[in-house]
Amino acid sequence: MRLFGGEITTVSAHLADPRAIGVYTSAAVAVTFAGGGVGSLLGSWDGSYGNPGAQIIEVAGLRGRVVVEDVVGSVRLFTHPDQLYSEWRPGIFDSGHRDFWRTIDRHLHAFVDSIIAGREPPVTGRDGLRALELTFAAIDSYERGRTIETGTAL
Q1: pTM here?
Q2: Cα–chain-centroid distance for residue 31?
Q3: Strand partners, 29
Q4: Rounded to a whole number, what is the distance in angstroms from the first to the last CA of the chain?
Q5: Can you name the residues that pair with 62 across neighbouring β-strands?
Q6: Phi-psi region of 67 (alpha: psi -120 to 50; beta: other; left: phi over 0)
Q7: Ramachandran angles phi, psi of 12, nearest 5°
Q8: Smallest Cα–Cα separation from 87: which of 102, 65, 105, 107?
Q9: Is the N or C terminus of the chain more exposed, i.e. has fewer CB atoms within 10 Å?
Q10: Dihedrals φ, ψ of 16, to 5°?
Q11: Considering only CA atoms, which of 113, 147, 153 is closest in space to residue 30?
Q12: What tens digit of pLDDT does each residue of 2-34 get?
């Protein structure tokens, strides 16, 4: 979400453990961004991954809105003020773009390539740490029943 909307400043979450396994497996998370935009993440690991829309990320701001469905299912972009709409979906014969596990391969290759080239990786350790901070903020929000101020990234 930070890739699309920038730094996240508040988190508000509703979480569930419907199977009573001791882990939150369904989440509805709302965030605000430093630039004033808002975003939401809706995901559940309680249904079948074969169901469309198991995970949806939506980010809205002054310049438009982006919706990502099921990580590799589709990306829809709505821009303001020109009212343009574009959508990316993997082709039916392009199984590499439809396979979630292949995205991990691509991330690892990009990381290794950046190290070899002496560049900062596209996703840094700071990004990983911030993701953990925001995850714990979502848990804190749910357990306290209030919005959590997340501060700024490291």
Answers
A1: 0.76
A2: 11
A3: 13, 41
A4: 17
A5: none
A6: beta
A7: -135, 130
A8: 65
A9: C
A10: -145, 150
A11: 147
A12: 877 889 999 999 999 999 999 999 999 999 999
134 residue type, one letter: L
- How far, in Å, CA of 105 to CA of 98, rounded? 13
Give the C-alpha separation, 112 to 118, whole Å.
10
Q: Examine the pLDDT at 129 and tell me if it is beyond 70.
A: yes
**Cα–Cα distance for residue pair 3/101, rounded to 1 Å:** 20
Q: Domains, the chain, ranges and CATH? A: 2-145 (3.30.360.10)
Provide the residue type at 40 as one letter. Answer: S
Q: Who's near 46: CB < 8 A, 6+ residues apart?
A: 18, 19, 25, 26
